[in-house]
Write the structure tokens for this entry.
Amino acid sequence: MAAFEHAIGLGYRYLETDVRATADGVLIAFHDHSLDRVTDRQGIIERLSYPEVAKARIAGRAPIPRLEEILGAWPEARLNIDVKAESAIGPLTEVLYRADAWDRVCVTSFSSRRLRQVRARMRLLSGREVCTAMGPRGVAALRAHSLGGPLAGPLRAAVGGAPCAQVPYRLGHAPFVTAALLESAHALGLKVHAWTVNDDAEMGRLLDLGVVGVLTDDIEALRDVMKARGLWATAAT
């Protein structure tokens, strides 16, 4: 929670987090599948009850927040939510419904199936559509088109109503986000968000190309790069 609070204090209104569900269906904001790497406890999260997970402390200090806590603490913020496991799909849609937060999130995943299930469950639960990024198959097709492939029907189908493509900014030493990729995305009506960018020169290059979202661990550097381009006041509102 301290990390999210720090971002809000700087002026950010767009936050990013991963989510996983405990064995009893509580949705937490956490990246790893287990507690082992970054907390003072051990165990696979989806095999542990929430009371057990709640005892864990990140770096021995901070508890793991529930997604519902984050949504409630900063009702003005919008969240990008990466669904890390299928077991989190039901709890996520229930939290969004309960918190009436379906219209201030964008859901993403490395699984196209998870994204389809999130959309379907949200429609079933509330009759509402929830924003999702394009799935990995669509991103791969978009990349292929940017390298000279046709803008074919399967690529259009892969968009699946998504308003954005969230992509790595590079693959190894080669840039993934290029002017050609931006052109292909814009032809499909897609905005492009790039992850995870911790180099200020790359942040500037991407923004100058036309990327509208940058995911970063270095939020002070991104703020400064955006301020230098006159983008910060808009982003902070």
Q: What stands out?
A: The CA atoms of residues 57 and 63 lie 5 Å apart.
